[in-house]
Amino acid sequence: MKVIITLLFTLLLVSACGTAEEVPAEEINEPSFPVDTLEITNFIGEELGDSTNTFGIIADAEYHLGTGNILLLDNGASCIKEYTPAAEYIRQISRQGSAPGELSPMTFEFFQMGNKILALNMMKQGFVVFDDSLNFVEEISHWTQNPPMQSVGLSDSVFAAYKPDFSEAGEGQFVMYRRIVTYNLNSH
Question: How far apart are CA 111 and CA 117, in angstroms?
Answer without folding.
Answer: 6
